[in-house]
Design a protein that fits this description.
Helix content is 35%, strand content 17%. The protein has 11 helices and 12 strands. It has a 7-stranded parallel sheet with strand order 8-7-6-9-10-11-12, sandwiched between helices.
Protein backbone atom coordinates (compact mmCIF):
# COMPACT_ATOMS: atom_id res chain seq x y z
CA UNK A 1 0.00 0.00 0.00
CA UNK A 2 1.29 3.45 -0.94
CA UNK A 3 1.73 5.88 1.94
CA UNK A 4 2.06 9.60 2.49
CA UNK A 5 3.82 11.19 5.44
CA UNK A 6 2.60 14.36 7.14
CA UNK A 7 5.63 15.61 9.03
CA UNK A 8 4.24 18.86 10.44
CA UNK A 9 3.85 18.83 14.22
CA UNK A 10 0.06 19.14 13.84
CA UNK A 11 -2.34 18.70 10.93
CA UNK A 12 -6.12 18.45 10.77
CA UNK A 13 -6.63 15.42 8.54
CA UNK A 14 -10.29 14.91 9.48
CA UNK A 15 -11.46 18.22 8.00
CA UNK A 16 -9.18 18.25 4.96
CA UNK A 17 -11.09 17.21 1.81
CA UNK A 18 -7.96 16.34 -0.15
CA UNK A 19 -6.57 14.08 2.58
CA UNK A 20 -9.96 12.39 2.67
CA UNK A 21 -9.75 11.84 -1.10
CA UNK A 22 -6.34 10.23 -0.68
CA UNK A 23 -7.69 7.94 2.03
CA UNK A 24 -10.58 6.94 -0.23
CA UNK A 25 -8.07 6.04 -2.92
CA UNK A 26 -6.38 3.62 -0.54
CA UNK A 27 -3.45 5.81 0.46
CA UNK A 28 -2.24 5.31 4.05
CA UNK A 29 -1.51 8.50 6.02
CA UNK A 30 1.40 8.48 8.48
CA UNK A 31 1.62 11.37 10.94
CA UNK A 32 4.58 12.82 12.84
CA UNK A 33 4.74 10.78 16.08
CA UNK A 34 7.04 13.27 17.81
CA UNK A 35 4.69 16.30 17.48
CA UNK A 36 7.68 18.62 16.91
CA UNK A 37 10.20 19.47 14.22
CA UNK A 38 11.89 16.26 13.03
CA UNK A 39 15.62 15.68 12.90
CA UNK A 40 17.28 14.26 9.78
CA UNK A 41 17.31 10.75 11.24
CA UNK A 42 13.67 10.96 12.33
CA UNK A 43 12.65 12.13 8.86
CA UNK A 44 14.56 9.24 7.30
CA UNK A 45 12.85 6.77 9.61
CA UNK A 46 9.40 7.98 8.49
CA UNK A 47 10.22 8.05 4.78
CA UNK A 48 10.47 4.31 4.17
CA UNK A 49 10.16 2.69 0.74
CA UNK A 50 6.35 2.73 0.75
CA UNK A 51 6.11 6.51 1.04
CA UNK A 52 5.28 8.18 -2.28
CA UNK A 53 4.31 11.64 -1.05
CA UNK A 54 4.97 13.98 1.84
CA UNK A 55 3.41 17.07 3.36
CA UNK A 56 6.52 18.64 4.83
CA UNK A 57 7.12 21.03 7.69
CA UNK A 58 10.51 22.65 8.30
CA UNK A 59 12.53 19.50 9.02
CA UNK A 60 15.82 19.24 7.10
CA UNK A 61 15.14 17.34 3.88
CA UNK A 62 18.80 17.06 2.97
CA UNK A 63 20.34 15.08 0.12
CA UNK A 64 20.97 12.28 2.64
CA UNK A 65 17.31 12.17 3.65
CA UNK A 66 15.99 12.36 0.09
CA UNK A 67 18.31 9.64 -1.22
CA UNK A 68 17.08 7.33 1.53
CA UNK A 69 13.44 7.86 0.50
CA UNK A 70 13.41 5.44 -2.43
CA UNK A 71 9.72 5.77 -3.31
CA UNK A 72 9.21 9.48 -2.62
CA UNK A 73 7.98 11.42 -5.66
CA UNK A 74 6.12 14.49 -4.35
CA UNK A 75 7.02 16.88 -1.51
CA UNK A 76 4.36 19.45 -0.65
CA UNK A 77 5.62 22.10 1.77
CA UNK A 78 2.99 23.28 4.21
CA UNK A 79 4.35 26.83 4.15
CA UNK A 80 6.27 29.28 2.03
CA UNK A 81 9.99 28.70 2.57
CA UNK A 82 11.84 26.06 0.57
CA UNK A 83 15.19 26.42 2.34
CA UNK A 84 14.67 23.23 4.37
CA UNK A 85 14.58 21.15 1.16
CA UNK A 86 17.66 20.35 -0.94
CA UNK A 87 16.03 21.38 -4.21
CA UNK A 88 19.01 20.32 -6.33
CA UNK A 89 18.96 16.81 -4.90
CA UNK A 90 15.18 16.60 -5.25
CA UNK A 91 15.39 17.54 -8.93
CA UNK A 92 18.15 15.00 -9.58
CA UNK A 93 16.05 12.32 -7.89
CA UNK A 94 12.98 13.17 -9.94
CA UNK A 95 10.96 14.54 -7.02
CA UNK A 96 8.58 17.46 -7.47
CA UNK A 97 8.59 20.07 -4.69
CA UNK A 98 5.58 22.35 -4.14
CA UNK A 99 4.74 25.01 -1.57
CA UNK A 100 1.91 27.28 -0.37
CA UNK A 101 3.21 30.85 -0.71
CA UNK A 102 -0.13 32.62 -0.54
CA UNK A 103 -1.96 30.85 2.30
CA UNK A 104 0.23 31.96 5.26
CA UNK A 105 1.06 35.43 3.94
CA UNK A 106 -1.62 37.42 5.76
CA UNK A 107 -0.95 35.63 9.05
CA UNK A 108 2.80 36.35 8.94
CA UNK A 109 2.16 39.94 7.88
CA UNK A 110 -0.23 40.51 10.78
CA UNK A 111 2.20 38.95 13.29
CA UNK A 112 4.90 41.26 11.91
CA UNK A 113 2.66 44.24 12.59
CA UNK A 114 1.95 42.98 16.10
CA UNK A 115 5.67 42.64 16.81
CA UNK A 116 6.34 46.07 15.31
CA UNK A 117 3.69 47.79 17.44
CA UNK A 118 4.71 45.88 20.58
CA UNK A 119 8.33 46.97 20.10
CA UNK A 120 7.41 50.59 19.41
CA UNK A 121 5.08 50.92 22.41
CA UNK A 122 7.13 48.59 24.69
CA UNK A 123 3.98 46.58 25.40
CA UNK A 124 5.74 43.46 26.72
CA UNK A 125 8.02 45.45 29.05
CA UNK A 126 5.09 47.44 30.41
CA UNK A 127 3.05 44.28 30.96
CA UNK A 128 5.86 42.71 33.00
CA UNK A 129 6.30 45.86 35.08
CA UNK A 130 2.60 46.09 35.93
CA UNK A 131 2.60 42.43 37.01
CA UNK A 132 5.41 43.31 39.45
CA UNK A 133 3.28 46.02 41.04
CA UNK A 134 4.85 48.90 39.14
CA UNK A 135 2.96 51.55 37.16
CA UNK A 136 5.41 52.82 34.53
CA UNK A 137 4.59 55.82 32.35
CA UNK A 138 6.21 54.24 29.31
CA UNK A 139 6.63 56.54 26.34
CA UNK A 140 6.79 54.73 23.03
CA UNK A 141 6.73 55.84 19.44
CA UNK A 142 4.09 56.25 16.73
CA UNK A 143 4.26 53.93 13.73
CA UNK A 144 2.91 56.86 11.72
CA UNK A 145 6.12 58.77 12.49
CA UNK A 146 8.48 56.00 11.35
CA UNK A 147 10.18 55.05 8.11
CA UNK A 148 9.75 51.29 7.73
CA UNK A 149 12.31 49.47 5.61
CA UNK A 150 11.06 46.19 4.16
CA UNK A 151 13.64 43.74 2.85
CA UNK A 152 11.84 41.47 0.39
CA UNK A 153 8.67 42.38 -1.51
CA UNK A 154 7.11 38.96 -2.00
CA UNK A 155 3.68 37.80 -0.84
CA UNK A 156 4.35 38.79 2.78
CA UNK A 157 6.50 41.90 2.29
CA UNK A 158 3.87 43.54 0.09
CA UNK A 159 1.19 42.93 2.70
CA UNK A 160 3.38 44.40 5.43
CA UNK A 161 3.97 47.46 3.26
CA UNK A 162 0.22 47.93 2.78
CA UNK A 163 -0.50 47.53 6.49
CA UNK A 164 2.23 50.00 7.43
CA UNK A 165 0.82 52.50 4.98
CA UNK A 166 -2.60 52.11 6.63
CA UNK A 167 -0.88 53.37 9.80
CA UNK A 168 0.48 56.30 7.73
CA UNK A 169 4.10 55.17 8.02
CA UNK A 170 6.61 55.99 5.29
CA UNK A 171 7.65 52.75 3.57
CA UNK A 172 10.85 52.02 1.67
CA UNK A 173 11.95 48.63 0.40
CA UNK A 174 14.83 46.65 -1.02
CA UNK A 175 14.37 43.67 -3.33
CA UNK A 176 16.80 43.05 -6.20
CA UNK A 177 14.24 40.81 -7.89
CA UNK A 178 11.54 43.50 -8.08
CA UNK A 179 11.49 46.24 -10.72
CA UNK A 180 8.30 48.00 -9.63
CA UNK A 181 7.24 48.54 -6.05
CA UNK A 182 3.68 48.96 -4.78
CA UNK A 183 2.20 52.46 -4.85
CA UNK A 184 4.02 54.96 -2.61
CA UNK A 185 6.77 52.46 -1.71
CA UNK A 186 10.27 53.58 -2.72
CA UNK A 187 12.78 50.97 -3.87
CA UNK A 188 16.24 51.75 -2.47
CA UNK A 189 19.65 50.05 -2.31
CA UNK A 190 20.28 47.78 0.67
CA UNK A 191 22.80 50.09 2.34
CA UNK A 192 20.48 53.07 1.96
CA UNK A 193 17.63 51.15 3.59
CA UNK A 194 19.84 50.24 6.57
CA UNK A 195 20.97 53.84 6.99
CA UNK A 196 17.55 55.50 6.75
CA UNK A 197 14.91 53.10 8.13
CA UNK A 198 13.67 53.45 11.71
CA UNK A 199 12.22 49.92 11.56
CA UNK A 200 13.71 47.14 9.43
CA UNK A 201 11.57 44.07 8.70
CA UNK A 202 12.86 40.94 6.94
CA UNK A 203 10.68 39.11 4.41
CA UNK A 204 13.07 37.09 2.26
CA UNK A 205 13.62 33.31 2.00
CA UNK A 206 16.79 31.90 3.50
CA UNK A 207 19.66 30.71 1.32
CA UNK A 208 23.43 30.41 1.73
CA UNK A 209 23.91 33.72 -0.08
CA UNK A 210 21.70 35.44 2.51
CA UNK A 211 23.25 33.81 5.59
CA UNK A 212 23.58 36.51 8.27
CA UNK A 213 22.25 39.18 5.93
CA UNK A 214 22.01 41.30 9.07
CA UNK A 215 25.47 40.93 10.58
CA UNK A 216 27.62 43.14 12.79
CA UNK A 217 28.45 45.48 9.91
CA UNK A 218 24.77 45.80 8.99
CA UNK A 219 23.87 46.74 12.56
CA UNK A 220 26.69 49.29 12.58
CA UNK A 221 25.27 50.85 9.41
CA UNK A 222 21.78 51.23 10.90
CA UNK A 223 20.52 54.34 12.63
CA UNK A 224 21.05 54.42 16.38
CA UNK A 225 17.75 53.47 17.97
CA UNK A 226 16.50 51.39 15.02
CA UNK A 227 14.17 48.43 15.51
CA UNK A 228 14.65 45.07 13.74
CA UNK A 229 11.84 42.58 13.06
CA UNK A 230 12.43 39.04 11.79
CA UNK A 231 9.43 36.84 11.11
CA UNK A 232 11.11 35.22 8.09
CA UNK A 233 14.02 32.82 8.78
CA UNK A 234 16.50 32.65 11.64
CA UNK A 235 19.64 32.28 9.55
CA UNK A 236 19.14 35.76 8.12
CA UNK A 237 20.30 37.36 11.37
CA UNK A 238 23.63 36.98 13.16
CA UNK A 239 22.19 36.39 16.62
CA UNK A 240 25.47 37.11 18.44
CA UNK A 241 25.82 40.46 16.61
CA UNK A 242 22.16 41.24 17.34
CA UNK A 243 22.74 40.60 21.03
CA UNK A 244 25.67 43.02 20.99
CA UNK A 245 23.65 45.68 19.16
CA UNK A 246 20.81 45.39 21.67
CA UNK A 247 23.03 45.37 24.75
CA UNK A 248 25.07 48.39 23.64
CA UNK A 249 21.96 50.41 22.82
CA UNK A 250 22.75 50.62 19.11
CA UNK A 251 19.31 49.14 18.52
CA UNK A 252 16.31 50.35 20.50
CA UNK A 253 14.58 46.99 20.22
CA UNK A 254 14.10 43.86 18.14
CA UNK A 255 11.47 41.18 17.73
CA UNK A 256 12.16 37.66 16.48
CA UNK A 257 9.78 34.85 15.55
CA UNK A 258 12.51 32.67 14.00
CA UNK A 259 15.95 31.50 15.11
CA UNK A 260 18.89 29.56 13.70
CA UNK A 261 18.29 26.72 16.14
CA UNK A 262 14.78 26.04 17.41
CA UNK A 263 13.64 25.79 20.15
CA UNK A 264 15.97 28.71 20.91
CA UNK A 265 18.29 28.67 23.92
CA UNK A 266 20.93 31.36 23.94
CA UNK A 267 22.11 34.79 25.08
CA UNK A 268 19.24 36.65 23.42
CA UNK A 269 17.02 35.40 26.24
CA UNK A 270 18.76 37.90 28.51
CA UNK A 271 18.05 40.93 26.30
CA UNK A 272 15.30 42.98 27.92
CA UNK A 273 14.66 45.03 24.76
CA UNK A 274 13.90 41.96 22.66
CA UNK A 275 10.52 40.33 21.99
CA UNK A 276 10.70 36.57 21.47
CA UNK A 277 8.15 34.42 19.68
CA UNK A 278 8.20 30.67 18.95
CA UNK A 279 7.98 30.53 15.11
CA UNK A 280 4.21 31.02 15.08
CA UNK A 281 3.98 33.37 12.10
CA UNK A 282 1.59 31.18 10.11
CA UNK A 283 -0.29 29.84 13.12
CA UNK A 284 -3.46 31.84 12.80
CA UNK A 285 -6.43 29.48 12.73
CA UNK A 286 -7.87 30.61 9.42
CA UNK A 287 -4.51 30.81 7.67
CA UNK A 288 -3.43 27.43 8.99
CA UNK A 289 -6.59 25.80 7.68
CA UNK A 290 -6.05 27.35 4.24
CA UNK A 291 -2.39 26.35 4.23
CA UNK A 292 -3.11 22.72 5.12
CA UNK A 293 -5.83 22.45 2.49
CA UNK A 294 -3.59 24.01 -0.17
CA UNK A 295 -0.68 21.72 0.76
CA UNK A 296 -2.90 18.63 0.57
CA UNK A 297 -4.37 19.74 -2.76
CA UNK A 298 -0.84 20.27 -4.12
CA UNK A 299 0.12 16.77 -2.96
CA UNK A 300 -2.96 15.16 -4.52
CA UNK A 301 -2.37 16.90 -7.86
CA UNK A 302 1.32 16.02 -7.73
CA UNK A 303 0.60 12.34 -7.16
CA UNK A 304 -1.91 12.34 -10.01
CA UNK A 305 0.63 14.01 -12.32
CA UNK A 306 3.24 11.42 -11.29
CA UNK A 307 0.81 8.65 -12.24
CA UNK A 308 0.71 7.24 -8.72
CA UNK A 309 -3.03 7.64 -8.31
CA UNK A 310 -5.86 8.09 -10.81
CA UNK A 311 -7.74 11.33 -11.38
CA UNK A 312 -11.21 10.00 -10.71
Amino acid sequence: MNKIVISTSSFDTDNNPYIQQLLQKGIQVVSNPHKRRLTEDEAMALLDDGVVGMIAGIEPLTERVLKSAKGLKVISRCGTGMDSVDLVAAKELGMSVLNTPEAPAQAVAELTMGLMLAALRQICHTDQAVRKGEWPRTQGGLLAAQTVGIIGLGHIGRRVAKLCQAFEANVIAHDPHVDQAPTSVSLVPFDQLLATADIISLHVPYGPELHHLLDAQAFTNMQSGAIVINAARGGLVDEHALSEALNTGKLKAAALDTFEQEPYQGPLLECQNLILSSHVGSLAKEARQNMEIEAAENLLRGLIKAGLINDG
